Amino acid sequence: MSKVLYVHAKGGPPVGYALTRVAARAAVHLLALSELPGTVAADAARLCASVVRPDATGERDLVELITDRARAVGADAVVTFSEYAVVAVAEASRRLGLPGAGEACALARDKRLMRSVWDRHGIEQPRFRAVATAAELRSATEELSLPLLLKAAWSAGSTAHQVIESTEQAPGAWERSRAVMAASAQLGYAELHVADAGEDFIVEEIVSGSAGDWFDGPGWGDYVSVEGVVVDGVFKPVCLSGRMPTVAPFTERAGITPAALGDAAQERVVALARRAVEALGLDTCGTHTEIKLGAGGRMWVIETAARFGGAMTVPQIEEVFGLDLVGLFTDQLLGRRPLWPDRTLTPHEAKGAAGSFVVLAVDGAGAPWTRRHRWDSCAVVRSAPVSAGGTLSVVAESSLPDGTPVPVYDPAAGANTMAALCLLSADAPQTVVHDFTALVDALPAILPAAGAEEVTA
């Protein structure tokens, strides 16, 4: 039986979901760089041939750790679905002579390198500058058109995003973003292969989106993601996922599969995603490419990644299109020639729709809740305003334990202040958007109060 070394770290699709699908195709040896969720640990012991948790205090090189473990278990492939481990796994696979993203993987991780490649290829994107000091950030505010968005070059989940509206705001934004990256690293949400990655940033102009020019129904956000895969250097787009509007500054609240775009609009989006992915020169990996939608048909590439989309994007695709991306990718790495879609799937081919919802302590306008509340998954599932035929569930491994106070939303910390992740199945994409919009308004009434404490920033 084939053997796979599964490198687990935070981020990506739920490990409980991904692990079962890899284990269905090979003997799995788990290298857990992050602690497994309590809801998954027992299943991991049952599903895996071995489970190793390295000493967190060690100073050993991560690529060396992965390659040595792969050799020890005789791995035929090494896989990760985490943003924070993808570069190390790509390099380890290269050293082992196994399929992987290849030497170009860092181009799909470090936003500075990514944007520079796209700039050389003339690919539409917001104007940007790489910044490594407060002085460089101040200079960038004088060179680019305000307002600007400061973001960490190696971050994920909208962590450390800061909107800068004047040159005078630059020093404070710089210190705040660096502090958030340091705090995120303590939580395990940080690049694992590159030392001091939390010190690298880019700042970019904020382009104006216009969801109304692209979607017929209300409630959609002004960007989409193209989910796909690169196989031996050939990009294969699978489908598109849409979003609800972000919470300021740009924290994702919900993702919906499929995105309800017309065929012509989808083709244009996929064409831009193809240019962006192919410019990076990736070898074999999942891809997740985000594209901003503007007025009059304008588009800009925001970023891409050499891995599948996080949260519940992959399970959503399996539910509505019947495609097990994790299983197909595992087969690809093992040389089994899986059948990827020969074209981008459309909403007409979807069986209903599915969406994932991030519980944040803000209302529909992005304003903080006026009172603290405690997370209660049973109350949410029981009382959520779901349309007829819809089903709402809570992703336990991505949610706080019941009774935990919902964190006060911190714009700079982004998804780090989420309380839970929910999954909704419905008859159509617009139904998912409608129900999630209603859920945002209903949550303060559904969740029990955490005493009489008022919210403080």
UniProtKB/TrEMBL annotation:
UniProt xrefs under Gene3D superfamilies: 3.40.50.20, ATP-grasp fold, B domain
Lineage: Bacteria, Bacillati, Actinomycetota, Actinomycetes, Kitasatosporales
PROSITE patterns: ATP_GRASP
Chain ranges of the ATP-grasp domain: 115-334
Protein name as it appears in the record: ATP-grasp domain-containing protein
Organism of origin: Streptomyces tropicalis
PANTHER family noted in UniProt: ATP-GRASP ENZYME FSQD, FUMIPYRROLE BIOSYNTHESIS PROTEIN C
Keyword Ligase in annotation: yes
Pfam families attached to this UniProt entry: ATPgrasp_N
